[in-house]
Amino acid sequence: MKLLRGLVFVLLVVISTGRADTTWVASGNVSGVWNASGSPYMIHSGDITVATGQTLLINPGVKVYFAGQFKLIVNGLLQAIGSQSDSIWFTGSSADFPFDSPTRWRGLRFVDAHEDCQLSYCSISYSGATGAGALSYGGGLYCLNTDLRMEYCWIHHCHAGSGASHGSGCGAYFDQSDVLLEYTDITNNSGTIFEEGYAYSTPGGGFATSNTTIHLRHCKVQRNRPGINVGGIRFGGGTIATLDTCLIDDNWTPDGGWQGIVADTTAVLTMTGTTISNHNFPAAGFTNGLRAIGATLTMEACTLRNNSAGWINPDPTCLTAERRC
Length: 325
What we know:
Elements lengths: L1 H15 L6 E3 L2 E2 L2 E3 L6 E3 L4 E3 L4 E4 L4 E4 L5 E3 L2 E5 L6 E5 L15 E4 L5 E4 L1 E4 L2 E2 L11 E4 L2 E5 L2 E3 L2 E2 L11 E4 L2 E5 L2 E3 L2 E2 L15 E4 L2 E5 L2 E3 L10 E3 L4 E5 L2 E3 L11 E3 L4 E5 L2 E5 L10 E2 L4 E5 L2 E5 L4 E2 L9 E2 L1
Parallel strand pairs: 1-4, 2-5, 3-6, 4-7, 5-8, 6-9, 7-10, 8-11, 9-12, 10-13, 11-15, 12-16, 13-17, 14-18, 15-19, 16-20, 17-21, 18-22, 19-23, 20-24, 21-25, 23-26, 24-27, 25-28, 26-29, 27-30, 28-31, 29-32, 30-33, 31-34, 32-35
Antiparallel strand pairs: 34-36
């Protein structure tokens, strides 16, 4: 009888932890190699940090779960390189909690990190940036003074902002960085909306930048919903951006504000073979396709269609028709 009870107890323990091979990661510094054989890696007690001078390599097939309001801070070198058949997942302990849930994890935060940081075939999902200042920037990924390469990645269902502070870059925020995004999708991210219909500014439902050099190739920014302001991308002042064969589509703001792309004064934006489409929420005074007042703008072989309030502010000559340039 005692043996039977012991076996039942062991079985219950295994069931309660989900998987017998879970690797439990406590708060503090992390480094070394994470392999699929040790997956999933459960971050269960606080923030984890790749410290300056340290390296963390994450191999294909690894799933990293954050079981609370914890973040992965990168000051050293992070290379998370999956494969087409075996992606790497960074997500919360549940895949369906609401956008404003306090159990959201806090995303990936690259701050003064190593110049060779890379994410390939990675999914970043269901995280949220909230708190004072920059803590509310970059719902899924925040990058400050870092060179970062991302390819074949997906940032989705992330959130920025809270009732206490505004957010910026619901999917990602890049500041004073040098970034390459290839074949990367930034979709279905959101910002805080107050119940009475007002919201703090969350510019950049997909992502936002400041004083950053960023190159996008074959990327999609779609179906992002910030609390207010810019639905798709906000290229802030001092940004140098190139878009090559990208799709900016169906982004939306609750006030009908600038829904596609905004390039601020002193930004330099070059687009080739890029489509901006389906930003058609009617609102007086806003430009739903592309706003580039004061920015340096160059476009070649681009398509702008079904954008209800204009294609380039303040040009009033092309409202809803398709325009190629």
